[in-house]
Structure to design on (575 residues):
């Protein structure tokens, strides 16, 4: 983050030096642009994100199971306020969290996720999203994203203006006088304009990947059951459908990269998310317990010794943490895949104001909100039902 | 006033600032423990509210499980009466309630009619989720207690804690043996 800020300041400095004759103006310009964009992102970001994803807000009665899992994770993470829950009508498997602070948080899951994951897996995914909320990753990534955007915009305009003003004969060269110095500044500025966006992107992606590992670690700590998230990630990775409503700016908030392609290199510097196989391997290597210390150990084991994820102070803060067993399948009412799919699709129809009528023959009729007639004939058995 | 005077004043100011800082940290951590305890309490009360409904629904179907149902009701009433007791005493009765409740849900598996009852399914989801929430709030409470107790015991904050009366808090431990044991599966 600090590094990215320095890149922004450098580009502002170069712009100012070249066009405005004063580096200070350039710095101020860069900071003002960044500040304005931040305000928009921080105060409008969640509604923009949820609007873009066509998410529908649900209440406890709409889907008690999802609501309960979110509440469980809210309690485990120690958040004070229950986040809003949204559901995205999309068969892809994904989830994201948003909200500029923990009091204004929201989590969104896709319909596909609700259908495919069992309770333990869902808990792992929600735990991961809660960790993003709790660690304030949403705010961090919003600011980092805006920083990246500002750098790209400034560099873009910078190179264009530079190009055209040099075509027009160089207005500034008359006031400068020192030809040698002018050329050096020009070269430095051009190099910076080209490198800055690339550099900023790499930093942005590195920050994003690190926050993903941290959220995985927190999810394991909250649920005391890393296997849940690991097996959920496996299912998410195996599914091929891409989320239609995601875009580049919102990508870091999802649990897995919504744009991932098959057969991509395992370690990719230009990805917002670490490779799923590696995340799964780390979670599965947490044999000793569910604490940050155990995750850190597993992280070192999988990614090579000497690689650190967390500062020592964060690890030593908590004591040893045991793992729990899987949810027993019997006593806990765990709906099977078919029931989950039915439950989810019923919810989505209901949310679109469709009325469900059960015909005597067992057929379920869905009546669209625009349907005005008082009765409807069952297409299966021919009985006339009241609407 | 000489240099020594200023040095003494400086040291006193630093000590006061440090004292206030440590005191505030202790207050914050103790508040978190209390807040976490309130969270457990909310979930335990929720469980007291759910159990009579569950027993009422199950009664019609489980004619031969009168004893199990009575054990659940009794354990619930005992737990509710212990509401004002200390952390340790409550953990004990609540642990017992958890174990008789899981026994009830296990025998419910033998009654297909009961399992098909929508009302029972909804109650079961609520109850098992409440069990989870009790577990997670206990987890958060114990973490908070650990952090707070550490703070009251390490130097230099133990000095401040001793002067201002911060005492170590009790963990909410599950004392019932059954919950600790692994589930045994028999194929006979």
């Amino acid at each position: 983050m600090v590094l990215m800020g320095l890149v922004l300041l450098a580009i502002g400095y170069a712009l100012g030096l070249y066009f405005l004759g004063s580096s200070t103006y350039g710095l101020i310009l860069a900071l003002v642009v960044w500040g304005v964009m931040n305000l928009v992102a921080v105060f409008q970001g969640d509604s923009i994100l949820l609007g873009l994803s066509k998410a529908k807000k649900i209440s406890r009665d709409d889907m008690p199971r999802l609501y309960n899992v979110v509440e469980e994770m809210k309690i485990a993470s120690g958040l004070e306020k229950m986040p809003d829950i949204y559901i995205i009508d999309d068969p892809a498997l994904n989830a994201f969290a948003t909200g500029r602070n923990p009091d204004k948080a929201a989590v969104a899951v896709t319909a596909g996720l609700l259908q495919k994951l069992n309770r333990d897996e869902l808990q792992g995914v929600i735990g991961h999203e809660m960790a993003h909320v709790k660690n304030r990753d949403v705010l961090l990534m919003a600011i980092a994203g805006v920083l990246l955007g500002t750098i790209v915009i400034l560099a873009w305009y910078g190179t264009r203006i530079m190009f055209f003003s040099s075509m027009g004969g160089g207005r500034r060269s008359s006031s400068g006088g020192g030809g040698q110095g002018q050329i050096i500044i020009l070269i430095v500025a051009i190099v910076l304009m080209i490198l800055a966006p690339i550099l900023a992107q790499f930093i942005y992606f590195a920050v994003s990947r690190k926050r993903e590992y941290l959220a995985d670690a927190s999810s394991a700590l909250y649920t005391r059951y890393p296997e849940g998230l690991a097996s959920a990630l496996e299912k998410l990775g195996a599914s091929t459908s891409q989320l239609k409503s995601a875009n580049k700016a919102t990508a870091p908030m999802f649990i897995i990269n919504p744009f991932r392609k098959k057969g991509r290199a395992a370690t990719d510097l230009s990805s917002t998310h670490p490779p799923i196989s590696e995340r799964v391997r780390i979670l599965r290597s947490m044999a000793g317990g569910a604490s940050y210390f155990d995750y850190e150990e597993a992280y070192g084991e999988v990614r090579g010794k000497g690689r650190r994820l967390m500062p020592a102070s964060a690890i030593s803060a908590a004591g040893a943490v045991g793992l729990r067993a899987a949810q027993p399948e019997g006593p806990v009412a765990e709906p099977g895949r078919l029931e989950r799919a039915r439950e989810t699709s019923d919810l989505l129809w209901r949310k679109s104001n469709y009325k469900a009528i059960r015909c005597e023959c067992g057929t379920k009729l869905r009546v669209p909100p625009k349907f005005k007639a008082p009765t409807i004939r069952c297409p299966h058995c021919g009985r006339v039902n009241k609407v | 006033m000489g240099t020594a005077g200023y040095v003494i004043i400086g040291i006193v100011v630093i000590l006061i600032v440090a004292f206030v800082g440590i005191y505030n940290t202790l207050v914050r951590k103790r508040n978190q423990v209390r807040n976490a305890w309130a969270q457990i309490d909310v979930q335990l009360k929720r469980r007291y509210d759910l159990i009579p409904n569950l027993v009422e629904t199950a009664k019609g179907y489980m004619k031969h499980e009168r004893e199990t149902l009575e054990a659940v009701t009794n354990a619930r009433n005992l737990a509710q009466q212990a509401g004002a007791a200390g952390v340790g005493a409550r953990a004990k009765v609540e642990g017992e309630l958890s174990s008789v409740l899981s026994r009830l849900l296990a025998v419910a598996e033998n009654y297909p009619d009961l399992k098909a009852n929508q009302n029972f399914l909804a109650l079961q989801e609520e109850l098992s989720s409440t069990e989870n929430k009790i577990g997670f709030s206990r987890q958060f409470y114990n973490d908070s207690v650990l952090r707070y107790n550490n703070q009251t015991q390490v130097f230099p904050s133990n000095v401040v804690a001793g002067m201002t009366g911060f005492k170590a808090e009790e963990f909410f431990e599950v004392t019932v043996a059954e919950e600790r044991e692994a589930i045994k599966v028999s194929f006979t």
